Amino acid sequence: MLNKIIVFSIKNKLVVGIFILGLIVWGGYSLSKLPIDAVPDIM
Predict the structure, then answer these.
(1) Where do the TM regions start and end (predicted)?
(2) pLDDT higher for 2 or 42?
(3) What pLDDT is recorded for position 26?
């Protein structure tokens, strides 16, 4: 199973790159919508 994922990722770098870029954009959007109370105070 893991071998098939690795082979697919190597053969389809563009698809994997677009998927990762989409995840980054989605994460940034989710972070911007996060309430201030949910972000820990690290300072």
Answers:
(1) 12-31
(2) 2
(3) 97
